[in-house]
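job 3f2a | input accepted
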Amino acid sequence: MKKAKNIKSIKEIGDIKGKIVLLRLGLNVPLINNKVEDDFRIKKTIPTIKYLKKLGAKIVIISHIGRDKNESLKPVARHMNKYVKVGFVPKVFGDDVHKMIKKMKNGTVIMLENLRSLSGEVSNSKTFAKKLASMGEIYVNDAFSVSHRAHASIVGLPKLLPSFAGFLMEEEIKNLSIALSPKHPFLFILGGAKFKTKVPLIKKYLSIADYVFVGGALANNFFKALNFNMASSLTEKTDVDIKGLLNSKKLLLPSDVVVKNGEKVSVKRPGEVSAGDVVVDIGPESVEEIGKLVTKSKLVIFNGPLGNYKIGFGKSTKKTLKNIANTKTVSIIGGGDTAYMVNRARSYKKYTFVSTGGGATIEFLAKGTLPGIEALGSLISK
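job 3f2a | predicted structure (382 res):
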């Protein structure tokens, strides 16, 4: 397989004045009433767009939004105009689209409609990829956040056009790769849900990190394996040998948890959780324990919230993020929800790096690569 370090950088793109560049971006951002709620991912794409504009390319942005094929990228294009002038085309294919692209002036930008409005994108249809490729001359992937998906615009296009990695893609690879050869002491904090998805991370980093703290709903499965009553708390059925993982001295679990029972909220030991209780966050003692480890560490990676912030239990996550920000420790914040909380607090500059990925970040940390990264440089000779 092609190693990430061998992909071609956008800096190697050469003379592209007048060339049509298909630029794949990760613009799957939250929308409320057709307005962008969090534009962190959008802002991170701007350096690549401006670089291509400066070189005189004709830039055609391709992306997706949501899972519903009827969702539109129009609000995203409208919002992007705060940073760079972008025209919007309300469809992906058609003679009129081709004509519009051919008439583009050098250094201009348009965005096509949601790729997932058509079935060929997700199914990685070769025909779909060829139709996309027919509209451009060069392909740039700056969509790290979706590069764990083997979709047509991610893995199909690089086989058909000369391909390059954008600045954001390079930045993600460079910073997340720090975790693969880390400085010690190294603390990995893992929260959120989706136990099945995150178990590979736990297994891998128990052999790499000095400590792996597991919080959020993930911890409930471990508590259940210890025969604690998780009552109505979120757990997942799994055939993973959790008790085997519990044997590791590097694995740390919350010493206290916040539980909600009806309208009553209290702090308990995990073994004290009783009928009707729902674990909604880690407790203050656990936050303090994490804080002490943070100050001792040379590298901290934090992926996934420690509590259910969506229903008001984000206190431990916010406090832990603040503790990390107040140190000089190399810090990498990953996971869509965690990055969302950082951006809402406008504090992302306080960390070494904040990833734009959710599932992509998790998969890269587990495997050291992604399908979209492997695909770059896979051009089939004609």
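job 3f2a | Residues 1-5 have pLDDT under 50 and may be disordered.
job 3f2a | closed
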